[in-house]
Amino acid sequence: MATSGAPAVANGTGQEYHSQAGDVFAQEPSEDAGSAKGARATYGYLVGDPIYFNSPGYNPGSCTASWIVSGYSGWFILSAAHCGGGVGSTVYGTGSAFGTIAAKKSSPNGDSMFFSYYSNVIPYQIVVDPRTGARPGPGGTGRVTGTMPTSSQYSGVLVGKMGKTTGWTEGRITGTTSWKGVRAFVTNYWSSGGDSGGPVWQATSAGVKAVGMHVGSISISGIRIGAVYIPIDTLLSQWGRG
Question: How many domains does the chain have?
Fold first, then answer.
């Protein structure tokens, strides 16, 4: 659980962002949480929805959005830092603008960003395949009930990924690598351009566990080695987990 002594991450405006790791996945945000409080929703965000940066539904530079993170200054949505423009850039959904990039961490400090969402958006900590609408987990609800610690992520473990381009794919962890300065995991699930930022998860009998965030793939001499994700513990720690 983050405390008043937790490290802070400041953007160019001096605003601080602190993740509250203990609360991030304890409940799904609703109209009583964060910037959506008291608002009438015109867009319900689900973990795995596509995001765009030039106009609604505009493909070049588009990515996938990930976990909803609680902070002292509100609720934010995670995605990959190499997606979109700089801090202050607009984030679009399939129909309209719905957020603004609040802060980024790029090489050599990883590959993640927070974006804030507008007051007419209600985010739900529910994982969805953006291509088909299917949801993993018991009863096909997609409901997130916790996180998978990095210590439980090792070769042979089965994980799933949601992405704008390839949708729901699954594969096993095959090793580790360094991705833009942070330790990341290599897997054999399929991915492609536009999937960056998407949630990596594992379905259990107790619900869906947040495993990490997809950031890309690695190749050697033109031969694909595997897809890469940054573990959730690393992401939360980087953004001020106490």
Answer: 2
In a domain, 2, yes or no: no
pLDDT of 184-229, one tens digit each? 999 999 999 999 999 999 999 999 999 999 999 998 888 889 999 9
The CATH number that applies at residue 179 is 2.40.10.10
Tokens 């608002």 identify what position?
A: 39
**Backbone torsions φ then ψ of 97, nearest 5 degrees:** -65, 140
- Running DSSP on this structure, what letter comes out for residue 111? S
- Helix, strand or coil, per DSSP, at residue 233: helix
The residue segments making up the domain with residue 64 are 9-127
One-letter amino acid at 202 equals Q
∠ CA 209-163-29, nearest 5°, is: 50
Q: What is the pTM of this model?
A: 0.84
Do 144 and 97 reside in the same domain of the chain?
no
For residue 81, what are its two tokens? 């830092």
For the chain, give the number of residues: 242
| Closest C-alpha to 210, from 134, 138, 126 | 126
